[in-house]
Amino acid sequence: MVLSFGLALSICAFASGCTAGQIENVSATRFVEADVTPTPQKKDTITIAAVGDIMLGSPYPNDTRMPPEDGRSLLKAVTPVISAADIAFGNLEGPMADSGESAKCKPPKPPLPGKEPEPIRCFAFRMPTRYGKYLKDAGFDVVSLANNHSFDFGNAGMTSTRQALDAVGIKHAGSDRLQRSTAFLDVKGIKIAFVAFAHNAIVPNVNDLVAAKRFVTDAGRNADIVVVSFHGGAEGTASQNVPNRTELYFGEKRGNLPLFARTVIDAGADLVLGHGPHVLRGMEIYKGRLIAYSLGNFATYGWFRLQDETALTMILEVELGHDGKFAGGRIHSGRQEGRGIPVLDPSGESIRKVRSLSNADFPATAPKIADDGTISN
Question: Which of 175, 287, 353, 354 maximizes the CB count within 10 A of its CB?
Fold first, then answer.
């Protein structure tokens, strides 16, 4: 099908610290036609739609980073692709809670007489719990809570997040290392496990390969297909390529991601989905399994300066056989408009970007990516 949608944008593209006086005006000034037809599904495959970082808006520390219409239409343009898959997955970048203060970010010091107040240099996100319904309505079935923002509001924020997701029937993985590292879903008579990792100590850690193998092996005992999600890697436009070593970001170890991905596949994982660098990264196929090293930002409203590579996004559609092997897929190219509204992008820029990075970083193992985004081995 072809979706016509109007985006009324008077863009306020800015970094954190935007004041309440900077207002995004919405009017019907642009219409874009984009093909949102999902790849035809085969009866003997499972289709997974996967996206990167999701942060739908935060009223903390004030409401200047909240989306228009309270976020009700934030995911409207991408819903047809997400909802068409058997399973839709994303990384929930921050807690869902309706109150609380973050111990992570101390209040800024009062300005000295005649001086401007200090800009906010700390990022703490808190989405309203009612936004869980928006995720469900868009088609999301399971999210990762294993990332460096899930505990921005401590254990209370994490508990609230679990409750908000449970209330709308969205599964979640990776909120701690013990009981909640893995989520299980049943689709077409197939049991699928999602195991989530990040680079912080509270959740399963990308730097601990011994534990990673154990998590995946344990999940495989109770599932037919195992999907691994990881939040790792350095951040920003200088980090689009995947190095074959442990990445450091502000002195923090964020994983040797090729080693991690291949290790979990050796242990029984069937698909590996990465996020965290806030940019797209390349893909490779290892032992018949697809590895996507970063799905980039997806819907990160209000906090970030979205331009060039950081504004690019995609919906990765993957078909897996009932044995877990990669059977094909497609990149649905997208970008974030304005302050963080995800839309489909008929120019295909994300497709070209991922293809270029894949061929550069994994010349022997990169999948074939056609101009229309079709992925094949």
Answer: 354
Joined tokens for residue 203: 């959740």
Helix axes 257-266, 209-221, angle to 10 degrees: 30
CA distance 354 to 333: 10
Q: Tens digit of pLDDT for each residue in 99-141?
A: 888 777 766 666 678 776 555 567 788 999 999 999 999 999 9
Q: What's the confidence (pLDDT) of residue 35? A: 59
Tens-place pLDDT, residues 281-306: 999 999 999 999 999 999 999 877 78
Taking the C-alpha atoms of residue 56 and residue 304, their distance in angstroms, rounded to an integer, is: 12
Distance from the Cα of residue 242 to its chain's centroid = 17
pLDDT of residue 67: 93
For residues 218 and 71, what is the distance between their CA atoms, to the nearest angstrom?
Answer: 38
Q: Strand pairing partners for 275?
A: 231
Contacts of the segment 155-159: beta carbons below 8 A, 24+ positions apart:
156/97, 156/100, 157/95, 157/96, 157/97, 157/100, 157/126, 158/95
Residue 324: φ, ψ to 5°: 90, -10
* Domain ranges (residues) in the chain: 2-103+122-376
Residues constituting the chain: 377
Token pair in block for residue 334: 């997208």
> Going by DSSP bridges, is the β-strand pair 190-197/182-187 parallel, antiparallel, or unpaired?
antiparallel
264: Cβ contacts below 8 Å, ≥ 6 apart:
195, 212, 213, 216, 228, 272
pTM above 0.90, yes or no: no
Strands (E), the chain: 2-6, 31-35, 45-55, 87-92, 142-144, 171-173, 182-187, 190-197, 225-231, 248-249, 252-253, 271-275, 283-286, 289-292, 297-300, 312-321, 326-337, 341-344, 368-369, 374-376
Task: Determine contact, residues 211/255, Cβ cutoff 8 Å.
Answer: no
